[in-house]
Structure formats: C-alpha cells, structure tokens
Amino acid sequence: MWLGILASLFFAVTFVFNEAMSLRGGPWFWSAALRYFFMLPFLVVIVWLRGGLPELSKSIRQNWLQWLVWGTIGFGLFYAPLCFSADYGPAWLVAGSWQITIVCGVLLTPWLSPRDTAGMRTRVPRRELVTSVILLLGVVLMEAAQSTHVRVGGFFAGFLPVVLAAIAYPLGNRKTMLLFSSSLDTYQRLLGMTIGSVPFWLILCVTGVPFAGWPSTSQILGSLVVAVSSGVIATTLFFAATDMAMGSPRWLAIVEATQSGEVVFALVGQMLFLPGAAPTPVGYVGVAVVIAGLCVHSWQIGRAKYHMGASAPSVELDDGQESLNS
C-alpha cells in the first residue's frame, strides 16, 4: 500500500506538468508520445542490467499480438486521453476525474483475475468497492467545490477522455499481469507494454504533426521529467505493488485505491506552481474524505492480515520488488 501511495506522488507530476505544457501551447499528442519514447531507453537499460532482455524478447516474439493489443490499451488509450484532457481542465480536475479508475479496477476484478480450482470467477470485493466509492465521493466534493471555475463544455471535454483512460489503464495492467507475471517480472512487463504501445505513438505523431507541428524545447524537457517521474518511477512502483497483491482481489483493490492520493498531490502542486484558485471549505472536506478513505483501506488490509495470521497466503517477490519494498 505504501508503494501505491508513493507511486501516486510521482504520478501527480504528470497532471501538473501536462497542464504546464498545455498552458505553453504544446500539442497534447507530443506530451503523450514523448513520455513513452523517453521511457523506452531507461527501461531497456534497467531490464538489460537485470539480465531480463532474452526472456522478454522471446515472449514478445511468441506473443507479439497480445503485447501490441494490451500495450496499446494499457498505455496508449490510457495516456493519450489524459494529455488531451489537460487542454480542457486544470490539473486537480483531471486528477480528480482520473479517480474513477479506482472503481473501474474493482469492477474489472471478476473478469481479470485467475479462476479458482473449481473454474469459478472471483467475486467483486464488496467492502473494497464500498470504500472506493467513499474515496470517489471525496473526489466529487473536491470537483464540485472547484467546478465554478471551469466551463461546462470544457468540463466534459476533459472528463470523458479521462473515463476512457480510467478503464484502459487497469484493463491493460491486469491483463498483462494475468498473462505474463508468472514468467516476467515487473520491469520486463513494463518494458513489454511500452514496446507494444510504440506503433500507436508513431501513428499518433505522424497524423498530428501536419496539424500542430513539432514540440518545443520546453515540452521536450517537460516530457522527459514526466517520463522519469511518472513513467519509470511511479509506474514501476505501482506495477510492483499490484504484482505483490495479485494473489488477493481485496488487496489488489486496496493498492489501486491508493491512486486517490494523486488528487491531493496534484492539488498541492497546482497551488504551488500553477495559476489556480485555492480549495473552498467544501474542497477541503473532499480532501479529508480522500485521506480518510486511504486510512480505512489501510485498516482493512491490516485487519485482514491479523485475522489470517499464519494462514495468510505468502507472496513471493522478485529481486526488483524486494529492493523496492526495502
């Protein structure tokens, strides 16, 4: 859970920097594509140093269509809509709308979790769903308090693409985890999805350049910061956390709910570095509800471990996950 919260801090950099680049007139598709172009060499070096390139290369050759499809969905249809929405809403609004992914992740559980020995699908974890809805209520309060500063048309132009992103991200993450986590570690899976999304980014750039031109120097540097902070550090932390929780739908729902911390971090980041109104009293209530929801999730997982005791399922970590945990 702490890995998830730490990941939400680095993920929040995405929302703040995307708005900053949008305010400077940078085309949204370059903000999206450059992040993954910059991520690629970092991840190649990490996986190479860990000796994981041969296994990943073999997996991509044997399952290239699956990597292409789920990489495009999990990264392409996740991040392109987020960058597009940055043109129509401030960082806090995009980050707030993004929290729909908490509920989407819980609702996807029955279809994206391994079947049990009897061949039955996992049920939706009800307690985690209820707590996730409470987290979402806090987000709604924050957005309602700030909605007077955003036009209705801009709200929906910024909101609907985020809904698509909120479904695509847990879908791609969980599907590749289900397909490849038994043979590949977190870093290999992250690199595989990035490679799988490259054709999508190339097509997006080729079709976008004639209309919007090339990126500026500031957009390139901003995208580099986002690539390292959000694309490499945050995504690795979050994927490691979901891999560790893969054996339990309840724990997986709790880890995904830690993304609600992005709202708080993005709001603070905007107040410090970007123009925007401070939260109203109702907005601060929303922040308090989000923090309370995280505390409830923490209590739930602690209570579950206490009652399971020695019978709790062990989770075997790979070397990268152990180092991240330490």
From TrEMBL:
Keyword Membrane assigned: yes
Alphabetized InterPro entries for the sequence: EmrE
Domain of life: Bacteria
Keywords: Membrane, Transmembrane, Transmembrane helix
Transmembrane annotation, as ranges: 28-52, 64-82, 88-108, 152-169, 190-214, 220-239, 281-299
Name the UniProt record assigns to this protein: Putative multidrug resistance efflux transporter
Annotated source species: Alicyclobacillus hesperidum
